[in-house]
Write a structure and sequence with these properties.
Number of helices of chain B: 18
Helix content of chain A: 40-55%
CATH architecture of the largest domain in chain A: 3-Layer(aba) Sandwich
Radius of gyration of chain A: 23 Å
Order of helices and strands of chain B: HHHHEEHHHHHHHHHHHHHH
Number of strands of chain B: 2
Shape of chain A: globular
Largest sheet of chain A: 7 strands, parallel
Distance between the termini of chain A: 47 Å
Strand order of the largest sheet of chain B: 1-2
Distance between the termini of chain B: 42 Å
Largest sheet of chain B: 2 strands, antiparallel
Oligomer: heterodimer
Chain lengths: ~450, ~325
């Protein structure tokens, strides 16, 4: 029974919605697309079959932080044979991993890394249990995060003798689903799609003229662990500094070294921290069940990202909250980035048209590379479409904030889903946060002598 | 930033702000390195590689305007009234040694963290989340544990001895990052003392603490910590300099090194000067140290032309003699 294996490897007695069907499909050697809501345990869909099938599991992941999260999640379960093969490893480490592939059960790679000839060549030499493509919507130009490198994964799959492939995503419209199937999956692939609604998460929007006061007010009422998302690293540190005297709080962003990020993840997982102030680099694969709230201090750029981020709350199914703090003009920062992006694209277009050679910005260099790989007009069109999409997505996000009806129905409609009855729904439906007053928390401080004694306790 | 820039300057020596900037971002020329050494700023070499020149100049201009620094054609002088006793300042800058350890500071400490964690879990359980899982750290830790059955006790004793010699605040800081079965290490920023919370003191404090730790480790070559950290300590050296040093120690002259390594005289000179700046045991006796008697006091304040006229010897010898003089070596 599959449940026995689930209990043996993960200590769970039952599967969550959709997990069993997806795993059975993969074990039956069927290519599979799983569209599961954030917080539903997508990772288990490849981890369990990974243990039941001989060979290495290759997981393609679009971001370093996502890979680190996944490796950390596996390590928490006692898995010692997982590694993120990415730019964080130095050359000697990469060579070591490639020469000792048989030592690993789970190998995480970026799409850029796996297309490298030397890497592909080594992967051809080992037995592959399955190929997993995480955040598979990146393959589609119609998805929220199109990554052209994903288009090459079809070729990669062929080179690796078409192992069973599992494509995972939380969001896929019909068009995106078609693109994923076309690039990554066999014609007879199974598709499992489940609602993105997270019924235990209450939805709140707080329009305020003083975010710090609003944040302090919510924190005084909210119990349990929570994430506070900010849009930039500097804002993360600023908010952290405002809270650090009163709360057990840490911060997390891409500017920290990977060991520091891991330390913070671990503290948060083990409830040594109540709050984590973070950019969206935190949490994609976070496997902490009892996050009670997610607060957005800054405005997210899309409902797609917002849904993913709030989905980190309440994985244990208990009542949780998502609170978005909005201050007039919050959207300006996104307009600014959109304008900058457009100006860079237009400047590059002019250079191409007039065949001029000028110094390029780092972003333009990246685009130029893509033009070489994928064709100039295709790539420029993609960029234009992307700009358009981003504008529309931001407008949708703003519409959600100013919406006076049921926020959940608004979200579901955005994801082409039908309305659902939800007892704990949203602020516009009358729910409130009425927690007990939270007291300041004390930090532990140790002198080095005490600390060493604690660390090496059994030698004394 | 203001308090850090102020701490760079002295109230007795006029310092050149442009050279200080080159020191901070790590412009590796023998003249920048030597200047840093003579004015006790070598430990800050490449401590802030991302420092923006415009921002640096603007801060200087503001400080001059406010009267905290005074300027003349020789450089900038600190006005003593500008020093804030609450700032970490001079003491912290003295502990930093980016010149010696800057290339592998973080890696070295990450190794220590994994080694301590792995040793602490020995005999307790092997079901734990290692703080590192890349082979750069895991392989040497595995080897050390395999070859040292008593590693837990040894590490406890070694760490106690090292932390005991560090300023207590730094020892608490570094120890706070370490993990064991019943205690979880913290991130650097969570452990910083209040007076180093702002930039760039926060990163300098981390660097200076680890550098002090490594300095003490280098004095105990019989320890497990030293053996484990050795590869990191070696990698933190300029590898081209190490090659030239090996040839020189075998008895080769500058010319022979040039020929064997197919490098220019200036490059060999740079390597020997860098070595002399790093190593108090540099073989100064291979040069004409009798000339030391002729060197004026604090000879680095004299121009090269003046010294050449006085000593009638080559650039390399003059520079090495100046370094010997600064180290207090007499002929």
């Amino acid at each position: 029974m599959l449940e026995d294996a689930l209990n043996q490897y993960f200590g769970f007695k039952t599967f969550r919605q959709g997990q069993k069907e997806v795993i059975e499909s993969v074990l039956a050697q069927q290519d599979t697309l799983a569209i599961l809501p954030t917080g539903n345990g997508k990772s288990l869909c490849y981890q369990l079959p990974g243990y039941l099938v001989d060979g290495i599991v290759i997981i393609i992941s679009p971001l370093v932080s996502l890979m680190e999260d996944q490796v950390y999640g596996l390590q928490k379960q006692g898995e010692k044979h997982a590694i993120a093969f990415n730019s964080q490893l130095d050359l000697a480490d990469r060579q070591y991993v490639m020469q000792h592939l048989q030592k690993y059960k789970f190998l995480f790679l970026s799409p850029e890394m796996i297309v490298q000839e030397a890497v592909l060549h080594q992967l051809e030499q080992v037995k592959i249990a399955m190929l997993v493509v995480d955040e598979a919507h990146c393959v589609s130009q119609w998805g929220i995060d199109f990554r052209p490198e994903y288009l090459q994964l079809g070729e990669v799959k062929k080179r690796l003798k078409a192992p069973v492939t599992l494509a995972l995503t939380a969001t896929a419209t019909a068009q995106v689903e078609a693109d994923i199937r076309q690039v990554l999956l066999a014609k007879n692939a199974n598709v499992y799609r489940y609602s993105m609604n997270r019924s235990n998460i209450g939805l709140f929007v707080e329009q305020t003229t003083d975010k710090d006061a609003a944040l302090a007010d919510y924190l005084s009422r909210l119990g349990g662990a929570g994430i506070i998302y900010c849009s930039t690293r500097s804002k993360v540190e600023e908010v952290y500094n405002k809270l650090r005297q009163r709360y057990l709080v840490g911060y997390y962003h891409g500017g920290l070294a990977s060991d520091q990020r891991k330390t913070l993840q671990q503290q948060f997982s083990q409830n040594k921290l109540k709050l984590l102030v973070a950019t969206n680099a935190f949490g994609m694969g976070i496997n902490k069940e009892d996050i009670r709230f997610v607060i957005h201090y800054d405005l997210p750029d899309s409902l797609e990202n917002y849904s993913q981020e709030i989905g980190r709350a309440g994985r244990d199914g208990k009542q949780s909250n998502a609170i978005l703090l909005y201050q007039e003009h919050d959207e300006q920062i996104h307009y600014f980035f959109q304008r900058e992006n457009k100006e860079e694209r237009l400047a590059l277009e002019r250079m191409v048209q007039e065949k001029r050679k000028e110094p390029l910005t780092p972003l333009q260099e990246k685009w130029q590379q893509k033009m070489k790989e994928l064709g100039t007009s295709f790539w420029l069109e993609t960029l234009k479409r992307n700009e358009q999409q981003k504008q529309e997505q931001l407008q949708k996000m703003l519409a959600y904030i100013h919406f006076t009806g049921c926020r959940r129905q608004f979200l579901l409609a955005h994801f082409e889903e039908e309305a659902q009855d939800n007892p704990y729904c949203c602020d516009n439906d009358g729910i409130e946060i009425a927690g007990e007053e939270q007291l300041p928390e004390k930090k532990e401080a140790h002198h080095w002598q005490e600390r060493l004694i604690k660390i090496f306790k059994d030698i004394n | 930033m203001d308090s850090f820039i102020l701490a760079l300057f002295s109230d007795t020596d006029k310092l050149r702000p442009s050279t200080l900037y080159q020191i901070l971002i790590g412009k590796r020329t023998s003249s920048v390195l030597s200047y840093a050494f003579f004015y006790d700023r070598l430990g800050l070499f490449q401590s802030l590689p991302q420092l923006n020149e415009k921002a640096y100049q603007q801060t200087l201009a503001d400080l001059i305007q406010r009267g905290a620094l005074s300027r003349d054609s020789d450089g900038l002088l600190l006005k003593t009234t500008a020093i804030n006793s609450q700032q970490p300042g001079e003491r912290l800058l003295r502990y930093a040694n980016y010149f010696r350890y800057g290339r592998t500071t973080e890696e070295a400490w990450r190794f220590v963290r994994l080694l301590v964690q792995a040793a602490a879990y020995q005999g307790v359980t092997n079901q734990y989340i290692p703080v590192e899982n890349t082979p750069l750290y895991t392989e040497p830790v595995r080897q050390l544990i395999r070859h040292n059955p008593d590693i837990k006790k040894c590490l406890y004793q070694e760490l106690t001895a090292i932390f005991d010699q560090l300023p207590a605040e730094m020892a608490d800081f570094l120890a706070g990052t370490l993990s064991g079965p019943d205690i979880l290490g913290q991130a650097f920023f969570q452990l910083l003392p209040e007076n180093v919370q702002s930039k760039p003191w926060d990163t300098l404090y981390v660097g200076a603490s680890i550098h002090q730790f490594l300095t003490l480790i280098e004095k105990t070559p019989q320890t497990i910590l030293f053996r484990g950290l050795s590869p990191f300590l070696k990698r933190s050296l300029n590898q081209s300099m190490v090659e030239s040093r090996a040839l020189f120690l075998r008895g080769d002259s500058v010319e022979q090194i040039m020929e064997k390594r197919r490098i220019k005289r200036g490059t060999v000179n740079d390597h020997l000067i860098e070595w002399a700046l790093l190593d108090p045991t540099f073989p100064f006796q291979r040069f004409d140290t009798a000339l030391l008697k002729k060197l004026p006091e604090a000879s680095w304040k004299n121009s090269y032309q003046e010294l050449q006229a006085l000593l009638t010897t080559d650039f390399l010898t003059i520079r090495l003699l100046q370094i010997a003089q600064k180290r207090g070596i007499r002929c």
